[in-house]
């Protein structure tokens, strides 16, 4: 594999420890933050295709949708409709910086609890909305929940997991996102036939996992890193013994204490992030978020029902097709969990880039060739589109989806970890907002060309992964600097000599 481009992953000391039942429970409870995020991603596309919802909040879109000969690519193009989806991600962008502060000062666990509270209030407002203002404000509060949850949960998972299992346990967050999307698609399918309040039931469903996260968070521990970082050394050591399932944790504990002592000397973490030696994790963390969104995945997952209607499926069939893609999304994420600590991160990124590129090109060619402004694809062609959408979702689910969260959570040093990850999360939310706000307008303006647009981005991100993303499989989270950056053919030039 491109010798010279990969950092060695075998130089890191292996601290004693095993996978314990308690860690497994902590991982599942924390990862419910991902389930809520996934539910919000999946539910918006189905709700925006429901006639009752459109008649109440977007009557102009509903009238346009009723016209049988309306432009296939433009019938849902409405900035306020897109704002319903995208406002959540703009709020999450802002919230990620506040969450960085609470993660550092209060801990990962209280930040997850704040996330669940924001979720619950937002769900109440959105599902009970009597007007557009309540609807959008509810989505904004949901966005704050997403920002706090997406900041705290991946950090929590990376810090609590043993190094040899960190990749698989961290991907549980992405797994729960995919399960949330699937649940949302199933809920959309059944509530679409409940008139006139099916959309309220769909939006209100996010309250169930939010309650689980709030209640479950009372049972989990804080991470040893966060405890030691906040001068609770004895509690941190006791927690480390508990999660590792062994008494001999002195080596890992001393490593954490040393990292925390160094981190305390950094008075301005954001300024340190701008220094040359911080550039490798910062550049990779931020660009992975951009690339994750510009694969086109959220364009498909947000608007899967709309997309399938565009290629010729009826409303119910479109929602059912979205359930199928959601199921494939979940199953394929298990593939990522299995392989990420075996084949490594780079292999999954590169393999999936090729697979997704082929799928985007095939879909684009079929639509360009046979889907005009009016009419539909033939049934066989529509089925081919759905098949390649499913193959595309497979590739994303075991690679760029989970690894976009995993790699930034494990590559920043402790002194800039929460701040660096906050920048990565904010980039994710920014580009998610851009895609959510622009996709329907892009679909209207570019038509089938939008799939070639995303194909070009997949080429760029594949080349970036090949040349610039090092392997971090099996490396201790606090040994990344010596075992990864100083060994990489390009990034080693950013490391201070003798440091």
From TrEMBL:
Domain Major facilitator superfamily (MFS) profile positions: 26-473
ATP-binding in keyword set: no
Domain of life: Eukaryota
TM helices/strands, residue ranges: 21-39, 80-102, 114-134, 140-157, 169-191, 197-221, 282-306, 318-340, 347-368, 383-408, 420-443, 449-469
Compartments where found: Membrane
Single annotated GO MF: symporter activity
UniProt cross-references to Pfam families, sorted A to Z: Sugar_tr
InterPro entries: MFS_dom, MFS_STP/MST-like_plant, MFS_sugar_transport-like, MFS_trans_sf, STP/PLT_plant, Sugar/inositol_transpt, Sugar_transporter_CS
Principal place of residence: membrane
UniProt keyword list: Membrane, Sugar transport, Symport, Transmembrane, Transmembrane helix, Transport
Keyword Transferase applies: no
Recorded GO CC terms: membrane
Membrane-topology descriptor: Multi-pass membrane protein
UniProt signal peptide: none
NCBIfam families in alphabetical order: SP (TIGR00879)
Family: Belongs to the major facilitator superfamily. Sugar transporter (TC 2.A.1.1) family.
Protein name in UniProt: Major facilitator superfamily (MFS) profile domain-containing protein
Species, as recorded: Eruca vesicaria subsp. sativa
